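From the methods appendix. Each design record in this collection lists the tokenized structure first, followed by the designed amino acid sequence. Records were kept in a plain field format so they could be parsed without special tools. The example shown here is representative of the layout used throughout.

RECORD:
FOLD TOKENS (275 positions):
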């Protein structure tokens, strides 16, 4: 526990600094996290599957670069790069390099490259630095709320084969705490419509739980305790960022949907005014 606390004391200020700087420094940090995270994933997987680290890494970097340049509709370039390289390798190495190996390599691309690229996209929005901070704070609130409520009141534990300590009561507690934190932050920053933080809070808390369970599932499947050792007391990058990786796309698309619906409502009000 002491090592865990010391790592948090050293790491959180660095993370907050890069969030505050935004732009290129934050994008570079995400690129480092993605590179290390992909290496952790393939280190876990290589015992059961053949992994092609460099071809997939090129696809991940392409996704991150497109997000940084603001051309989100080009994210599929990363998929195309990995598609050509992985399938090109497969046609020469089949059956030694089979369908399961192809699937695992593409899982690494989507699970790490596609998800983390949305942190950069989120940071590029209006008030992006605050939105990125809200995404991280939401996941920290969700994890903390789920842990304490689950410890005190948790009885029903339906995910015993994946994560025995997670409970339904803890999950509900995490969702409630997440909604409260986002609502209070929005009262201060006033970035979102009045009730939007509640809907976003529910969505990101649930998808964050799924991300956490997915990481636990992968570790169980590959027979490892932690994804890595780069963060003493916490494990690896995937152990620490599993929830926010999945929550970032959800928050990004929730905000896009909110703006889309808001624009449609404005257009409808304009038509009503004309008539």
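DESIGN:
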């Amino acid at each position: 526990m002491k090592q865990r606390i010391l790592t948090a004391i050293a790491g959180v200020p660095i993370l907050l600094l890069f969030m505050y700087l935004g732009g290129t420094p934050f994008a570079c940090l995400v690129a480092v996290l993605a590179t290390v995270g992909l290496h952790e994933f393939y280190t876990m997987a290589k015992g059961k599957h053949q992994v092609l680290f460099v071809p997939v890494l090129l696809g991940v970097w392409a996704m991150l670069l497109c997000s940084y340049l603001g051309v989100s509709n080009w994210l599929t370039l990363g998929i195309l790069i990995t598609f050509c390289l992985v399938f090109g390798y497969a046609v020469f190495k089949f059956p030694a390099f089979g369908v399961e190996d192809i699937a695992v390599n593409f899982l690494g691309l989507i699970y790490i490259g596609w998800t983390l690229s949305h942190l950069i996209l989120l940071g590029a929005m209006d008030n992006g630095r605050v939105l990125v901070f809200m995404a991280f704070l939401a996941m920290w609130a969700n994890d903390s709320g789920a842990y304490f409520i689950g410890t005190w009141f948790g009885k029903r534990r339906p995910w015993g084969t994946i994560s025995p300590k997670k409970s339904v009561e803890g999950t509900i507690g995490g969702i409630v705490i997440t909604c409260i934190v986002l609502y209070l932050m929005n009262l201060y920053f006033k970035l979102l419509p009045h009730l939007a933080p509640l809907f976003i809070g529910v969505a990101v808390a649930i998808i964050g739980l799924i991300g956490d369970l997915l990481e636990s599932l992968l570790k169980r499947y590959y027979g490892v305790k932690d994804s890595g050792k780069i963060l003493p007391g916490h494990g690896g990058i995937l152990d620490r960022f599993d929830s926010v990786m999945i929550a970032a796309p959800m928050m990004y698309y929730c905000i896009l949907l909110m703006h889309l619906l808001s624009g449609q409502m404005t257009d409808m009000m304009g038509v009503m005014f004309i008539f």
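APPENDIX NOTE: Residues 265-275 have pLDDT under 50 and may be disordered.
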